[in-house]
Design a protein that fits this description.
Protein name (chain B): RNHCP domain-containing protein
Oligomer: heterodimer
Strand order of the largest sheet of chain B: 3-4-5-6
Protein name (chain A): RNHCP domain-containing protein
Helix content of chain A: 10-25%
InterPro entries (chain B): RNHCP
Largest sheet of chain B: 4 strands, antiparallel
Radius of gyration of chain B: 17 Å
Organism (chain B): Streptomyces filamentosus
Pfam families (chain B): RNHCP
Number of strands of chain A: 6
Number of domains of chain B: 1
Strand order of the largest sheet of chain A: 3-4-5-6
Structural class of chain B: alpha+beta
Strand content of chain A: 15-25%
Distance between the termini of chain A: 34 Å
Strand content of chain B: 25-35%
Number of domains of chain A: 1
Order of helices and strands of chain A: EEEEEEHH
Largest sheet of chain A: 4 strands, antiparallel
């Protein structure tokens, strides 16, 4: 699944420098982690991103970071479920996670091998369940 | 806070609209109904009031299990994320634009889904 590269990447924020080097961890979980949702063993190396924090299959994550990504400052360790999809001005998709334990939100860029069907279901969710009254849809279709 | 005789209002930090602090249903607003921008006044990581006070821009629409929409806001200064429920009189055009935004810029070709 090729990530679309855009010519107008000028206004884009540089990727945050990675101060937690996962490869330098010791023990048997050096290069991978096990997903809390589907128990899949996921390699840390991901195409298109250096900050993989969620399972590419079920998109679940774990609440381990505090304010700064990679700081491992959160004591919660709750499961984070995908909540919604957001788009950066340059067209990059972000996955917004919500901690099921404490309600904290976090955003992470999607990786190149994330499950496209799961992402699509998430992106279509607002349109499938019209939470705004149905009349609003009719009004907007008339615009 | 709300007095019986004073109307509780706030001014939007983005579009400058003066907004009644309570929506039609009586619940307290946390974003402007016209441009959906908010202000970072509550610290969600540590709890309590936040010292940031910067503008928060709406970045996406999330759907709760009940089917209600919530707006996810991101602080433009410290990148903190919050979510708040959609009020009855929020700008439908901006809500719908944010909801279809991912589909307008998909990171993968959508033609492949037709075969599934």
């Amino acid at each position: 699944m090729a990530r679309r590269t855009r010519a107008d990447d000028r206004g884009r924020r540089a990727q945050r420098p990675k101060d937690v080097l996962h490869g330098q961890r010791s023990g048997h979980r050096e290069q991978d982690f096990r997903c809390v949702g589907c128990r899949l063993v996921v390699p840390l190396a991901a195409p298109g991103t250096a900050h993989r924090n969620h399972c590419p299959t079920c998109l679940a994550s774990l609440h381990v970071d505090g304010r700064v990504p990679g700081d491992r400052a959160a004591a919660c360790r709750g499961r984070m479920a995908p909540l919604s999809v957001s788009v950066r001005p340059d067209g990059e998709w972000l996955l917004v996670h919500e901690c099921l334990s404490c309600g904290e939100l976090s955003a992470n860029r999607i990786a190149g091998d994330d499950n496209a069907l799961a992402l699509m279901r998430l992106a279509l969710r607002p349109l499938r369940d019209p939470g705004v009254p149905g009349a609003a849809h009719a009004v907007l279709l008339g615009l | 806070m709300t007095d019986n005789f004073l109307i509780d209002t706030f001014t939007c930090v983005w579009c400058g609209l003066t907004v009644h602090a309570r929506a039609a249903g009586g619940q307290r607003r946390n974003h402007c109904p016209s441009c959906l921008h908010s202000r970072h006044v509550h610290d969600h990581v540590e709890g309590g009031p936040s010292t940031c006070g910067a503008r928060m821009s709406p970045i996406s629409i999330a759907v709760l299990r009940t089917g209600d929409w919530t707006v996810v806001h991101r602080c433009v200064r410290c990148d903190e994320l919050t979510s708040s429920p959609v009020a009855e009189d929020d700008n439908r055009l901006i809500l719908m634009r944010m909801a279809v935004r991912p589909l307008a810029q998909p990171p993968f070709p959508l033609e492949a889904f037709g075969d599934l």
